[in-house]
Write a structure and sequence with these properties.
Elements lengths: L3 E6 L6 H15 L8 E5 L5 H11 L10 H25 L3 E5 L2 H11 L4 H12 L6 E6 L2 H11 L11 H16 L4 E5 L4 H24 L8
Parallel strand pairs: 1-3, 1-4, 2-3, 4-5
Length: 228
């Protein structure tokens, strides 16, 4: 795939939405974006028109008027992802653009697999079908202690349906992200999300800078591949 696909992952309240905007600004100024290529910022759920409708059903506790079954939740996320990949992500990447995405397949594993306790094999099948094999080039996991995330969420006011599921659920979700980072060390990087926004942004930028430099060296010397 000619473009670059970078994903930010993490628990609710970790600061992803803020940090992905910092990263977007930095990349535009960094000189790494090839001439004539665009940098897109998107998210899951909600990156497409269909996704925005599904997002309201998934995150608004009053939208359905009934409890959303765990497997129903999983399939809605799968539908959102399939639409996102086919209509936006893959076309952007195939034309050489770069994409920053707030959440991707890792969130489904962490939230619906570890958090809800659904079968990880089923989740893998749904993710494979939805993505058609499209994987992120780099996933940045913004790791913040659950108690700190909860403090941040309380400061925002009313939480959505997923944000409100704290306690043991949030700890299980964090465990899911920990396991994913251990399982995919070449493409997942843990970012310490504690501290001031600008400091966290610098940590992310340093990781992305090193990753882009390694990719540039690999392109310059294809006979000497580097890990990651």
């Amino acid at each position: 795939m000619p473009g670059r696909f970078i994903v930010l992952e993490g628990g609710d309240g970790c600061g992803k939405t803020t940090q992905i905007q910092y990263l977007q600004h930095w990349l535009r100024q960094s000189g790494w974006l090839p001439p004539g290529r665009s940098l897109w910022l998107t998210k899951e759920p909600g990156g497409t028109e269909l996704g925005r409708t599904l997002r309201s059903l998934l995150l608004d506790p009053q939208a359905l008027g009934e409890a959303l079954a765990d497997q129903g939740e999983l399939f809605l996320y799968g539908a959102d992802r399939a639409q996102h990949v086919q209509t936006l992500l893959r076309p952007w990447l195939e034309q050489g653009d770069w994409v920053l995405c707030d959440r991707y397949v890792g969130s489904t594993v962490a939230y619906q697999g570890y958090g809800r306790g659904l079968d990880l094999g089923l989740i893998q099948q749904i993710n494979d079908l939805a993505t058609g094999g499209l994987e992120a080039d780099l996933t940045l996991w913004l790791d913040v202690e659950v108690s700190q995330c909860w403090q941040r969420l309380q400061g925002r006011g009313q939480a959505d349906r997923m944000e409100a599921a704290q306690g043991d659920f949030a700890h299980r979700v964090r465990r899911g992200f920990l396991d994913l980072a251990a399982q995919y060390p070449d493409s997942w990087v843990r970012i310490d999300g504690e501290g001031r926004e600008a400091i966290v942004a610098q940590r992310i930028q340093q990781v992305v800078q090193r990753w882009l430099e390694s990719k540039a060296r690999l392109q310059s010397h294809p006979d000497n591949p580097e890990p990651g």
